[in-house]
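Shipment paperwork, digital attachment
Item: protein structure file
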Amino acid sequence: MRITYTILGCLLSSVTFAQKANNTIIKANELYKKGDVKNAENVYNQALKIDSKNTAALFNKGNTLFKQNKYNDAAKQYQTTAETSTDAQLQANAYYNKALAEIKQQQYVQAIQSLKQSLKLNNSDEQARENLQKLLTEINKQKQQQQQQQKQEKPPKEKPLSKKEAAKQLEMLQNEEKRLQKEIQQQKNKPSKTEKDW
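Attachment content:
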């Protein structure tokens, strides 16, 4: 009998505990709807102090961080939501929003991974599929532009000379030097015309 009362007491306190967290989340949601995202974030933090595993508070806090342009923090918050939640749809939404935060930070490789995670959990999400395709197209386009820039910046490489070609060029230079030496010698040996002084 004593065990039954203890179990019943624990259940009632956990229900009260969850209800208090949910009431706090409702207040935060109202602030968010009014556009007061900073205060909404603070109230979501209060809800998370009451119940740190409350996925609604985790996800919505991520939304407030995103609205405040705190994209890195938002991405971490969405990751925590996805890892904490057991609801596949909420996980898919968290990964999708995480991808958006990563795109804002130009972390395209991570964003691709997040979109793929979202699609694994909800393969019927056309918006995630379209964004993934756009992102892949953009990355390929950037790679092509980088390759073109590198080609324009680098002068064409000269092929290294083979031994035969090097020997041939050396011989040509030596012959040219001999010719110039002969010319110089001939000019020295020519008598110079002196003008007669009358």
